[in-house]
Amino acid sequence: MSDMHNKRAAEIINNIIYITIATGSKGGQPWNSPVYSGFDEDLNFYWSSDKDAQHSKNVRDTGKVFLVIYDSTAPESTGEGVYIQADAHELGENDEIQVARRVTQTRKSQEDELGKKEYEKFTGSAVRRVYKAVPQKVWMNDVELDKNSKYIRDIRINVPITELKSFF
To answer: Which parts of the chain are beta strand (E)?
Structure first.
C-alpha cells in the first residue's frame, strides 16, 4: 500500500457522486443499484431510496453492502475504482437523518433547510428512507506487471481506512 493509493482513493471518493451498491437477498440473489451519495468525515456513506426498492429490502434483510466508486467514462484500461465492504442499515433517528441529508445536499451545492419536515420525508408512511453504510474494508484496483512491465492482471490493493480518513 502506498500513499499514492490512499491519495488517489480519496480523490475518487471526493469526486464521484454516484456509488454502485451491491446487495444480496437472504436467498443469495445479487442486486446492483447506482445511487447518489454523500459521506461524512468517518467515511460513512449515505443515500436515500424507495423503502420498497430491492436494494433497500436487501439492506434491511442482511445489513451488508459492497460499494464501488468509479468513473464510468474512463477509457478502457485507464479506469480506477474504490471498493468498499460495508455494514449498512436504514436510519430512523432525526439527528442521523439530518447528518445524512446535510452531507448529500452539500455535495449538490444546495442549501437545504433541515428539520422536522425533513425527518418526516424519510420516516413513518413516507416512501423514501435514508441509509448508512459503515466501511469495514477498502481496496483500490491496480495492475500486476511482469519483469518487462507487461500487463498480467488486475489486482486489488488494500487501502487502510484510518489512513484514508486523514484525507478528509
So the answer is: 18-24, 30-36, 38-39, 45-50, 64-70, 81-90, 128-145, 151-158
**Rounded Cα distance, 152 and 29, in Å:** 32
Residue 90 corresponds to which cell in the numbers above?
436504514
For residue 131, the tally of other CB atoms under 10 A from its CB is: 24
Residue owning grid cell 442549501: 111
Question: Which amino acid, one-letter code, is at 33?
Answer: S
Q: Is 127 exposed, middle or buried (0-12, 13-18, 19+ CB in 10 A)?
A: exposed
Cα gap 165→6, rounded to integer Å: 9
All structural domains of the chain: 3-165 (2.30.110.10)
Asked if pLDDT for residue 116 goes beyond 60, the answer is no
Q: Alpha-carbon distance 142 to 157, whole Å?
A: 7
| One-letter identity of residue 168 | F
User: Percent of the chain beyond pLDDT 70?
Assistant: 93
pLDDT at 60 over 90: yes
DSSP 75: P
